[in-house]
Amino acid sequence: AEEGKGGKVELLKKGGLKGIEAAMLAHPSYRTTPDTGGTAIKRFKVTYQGKAAHAAAQPEKGKNALDAAILLFEGINAWRQQLPETSRIHGIIAEGGIAPNIIPASTTCYFYLRSPQDDVLDRMIKRFKDIVKGAALMTGTRFKVEPWLASYKSRFPNQPLNDLFWQEAKSLGLNPIRPQRTGRGSSDFGDVSQRIPGIHVFFKITNKQVPIHSYEFAQEAGKSYARKQMLLIAQVMARIGCRFLFDVNFRKKVKNYFR
Q1: Which 3 state secondary structure label does DSSP give 209?
Q2: d(CA 186, CA 80)
Q3: How far apart are CA 165 and CA 147, in angstroms?
Q4: What are the helix (H) ranges across the chain?
Q5: Residue 151 carries which DSSP code?
Q6: Are strands 106-115 and 142-147 parallel, antiparallel or unpaired?
Q7: Which candidate, 41, 35, 50, places its Cα nearest to that of 165?
């Protein structure tokens, strides 16, 4: 869905939002906030191919693909201090070898690169590929960089919709707050927001500051308080939808801001 397969990107490609004039998405969180934007994202699969050998008896016969992956991560970590604060890069090693006494012949890594600015993201991708190549040169291995999963555009929040969300959320006791910085996450809603007016807001489902994408957050989502909050945010969304449908001036404001 939104995290990797790009369901909304496919909807857009196949005309699923044809005739739709605006969109809104509400995402659970530990706080209620308006849409603060989000980053564009590109994802890559990186593989290194080396040569297996006995790690004790004949290490000189091998080419260590795991060393290449480790050097890739070290290069990225050194690069991070020069990245803009709004940019992000993170990855995992999905395959790192078979056994400690066998020099790894192949490794597989997955990476996410994010930025709210397309030109910055393009430069990040070039630098990333250079670091991948550098790690291969240092270890005498071969490498391949392939696009992985869907790419998403950065999110463009609609201010009139955001302002109305703030009013309605406040009136229903959701106690919204305005974060000090723009959003760093990515979603396929970014592609929607660049095609039609839209907002991707967050609503509080817990009284504790629990990070999303954690086991603790999943537990909080199953509690009665979370359900109560979900029904309140549904009311907020319904009120905004009615206002958009029946208030001509408001609808014009939303569309003009988008243009």
Answers
A1: coil
A2: 19
A3: 36
A4: 7-13, 65-79, 118-139, 159-171, 189-193, 215-221, 224-246, 248-258
A5: -
A6: unpaired
A7: 35
Residue 177 · residue 31 · CB < 8 Å: yes
Q: What are phi and psi of 154, to 5 degrees?
A: -70, 155
* Per-residue pLDDT at 1 exceeds 60: no
Contact call for residues 33 and 199 (beta carbons, < 8 A): no
Q: What is the pLDDT of residues 11-45, one digit of tens each?
A: 999 999 999 999 999 999 999 999 999 999 999 99
The HSE-up count of residue 53 (CA atoms within 13 Å, CB side) is 13
First to last CA, the chain: 28
| Token digits of residue 244 | 């958009």
Give kind and range of the element (H or E) at residue 165.
helix 159-171
Q: Could you tell me which of 118, 78, 112, 116 has the C-alpha nearest to residue 213?
A: 112
Distance CA 125, CA 121 (A): 6
Pairing of strands 88-95, 40-49: unpaired
**Helix, strand or coil for residue 187?**
coil
Per residue in 106-145, pLDDT tens?
999 999 999 999 899 999 999 999 999 999 999 999 999 9
Helices of type H across 46-158: 65-79, 118-139
In terms of Cα–Cα distance, which of 149, 144, 146, 122 is closest to 68? Answer: 144
Indicate the helix (H) or strand (E) that contains 143: strand 142-147
Please answer whether residues 87 and 114 qualify as being in contact, where contact means their C-beta atoms are separated by less than 8 angstroms.
yes
**Which tokens is 234 given?**
């549904």
d(CA 76, CA 39): 19
